[in-house]
């Protein structure tokens, strides 16, 4: 019986760590590992068309499945292609193990064909990046990489020369039990005591929530009720905190809506829960701020804190809630709820006025109909740009749906690759890629991956023939739009030529039927919707400079964006306000 190779040992450890797939593009330095995957039960090789897609897909799988995922690239250019998707996974706190195969070990440092130094290149987008230069380093280096990725919630990279991968594994290698889950973190008593005192001294408290509130919905709602506090959220907090939330006042930031901005600025105490919200311009500088986060390096890096609390949001609130004396006055909360409802209704008319007859189709209308037709547990992957806006404002969270995107890294072309990884976690669950024409065309080659594996991903293409968000940025800066137009083909025809279901929609009345047909189709499908390139979004607060920029670039433009069913929720919350 042949002895196990280093590559075989590598793959066995991945399986023990819970990895079910290895996304990548084959290549000579990877051949020993790919062959080991072929011979190992419990793990599959997923052949994509571009390694960037492999990294995005692994990151999406890790976020949806909540376990370690993996990708691989061959030496030099192959593993270099991984870097953008790995940056996204790392900044999204997705546990991903990346294998960067390497040139023959004897040639390293000689300027050999395709030579790079991956152990150096990936240091900025990983918690751990090391090269295995001897078979005796296995399995310790890989086990350390696995535990860094899982324990620190991010990327680990292992560089492995192809010749070493093909060697026999050391006979007395030490394999230990792997860490496959993270512990909870409870704050110290001193921090809890101080936070209780600050809450007691504050008349008006606002909560602002991020993705760190995942799994803590009940605790946050109890906390808000005790404090009579409005609850705003960042984009990554939307799916975890907006549903079943009678205290919701919307989202702040560049894609924001509602009264979240006012609630965070008009309170006495702002409590940031599990958010690394990057736009400090939207945070107040004249109120007391407390931040609760499980990652201590994030405490205070966006705003000046009056108290930093290191801990999981759920564990922190479980300690805190029993000690909070419920506040009696709802005056601040009710005022913010009314502002929120009024703000939503003030912009919803653009969404409701003659949209079923408007051509090109309003993208708001597309997102709203998509929200209505998609399944209750659908996974939405969202391209960066205007698709972010429409998803933020129209896709309704319910505690079962997921919405992921490149929300922290901000990369183009993420939606389709992430849909691949999301769909592999469960072929029976509906996965919808909300793609822009710019992002989709950038990595369009991997639409063929959907066809090759018969993945039933539904791509809804918001095709406005432009880079809409970039155009908006230029207009705000007072610049004429330039270099933002796309000359696009009939994407539906391309989908059909590839062997998928494809339909092009140019009239609003055709949209609902096209979506229903695509959702009923058992395999991959693409709905190419021609949308209005003049439909742009605005943040909740507009500065004088922004207004001047628009005036310079476009004269008088009316920019309104609807908010779909959120206005119904806001009005429902208002109806729940106690009457004297």
Would you mind describing this structure in some detail?
By secondary structure, the protein is of the alpha/beta class. It has three domains: about 5-165, 3-Layer(aba) Sandwich (Rossmann fold); about 190-340, TPP-binding domain (Rossmann fold); about 355-575, 3-Layer(aba) Sandwich (Rossmann fold), CATH 3.40.50.970. Helices cover about 40% and strands about 15% of the residues. The protein contains 25 helices and 19 strands. The strands form three sheets. The chain has a seven-stranded mixed sheet with strand order 10-9-8-7-11-12-13. A six-stranded parallel sheet has the order 2-1-3-4-6-5, with helices on both faces. It has a six-stranded parallel sheet with strand order 15-14-16-17-19-18, with helices on both faces. Helix 1 crosses helix 2. The longest helix is centred in the middle third of the chain and has 17 residues, at about 330-345. The termini are far apart.
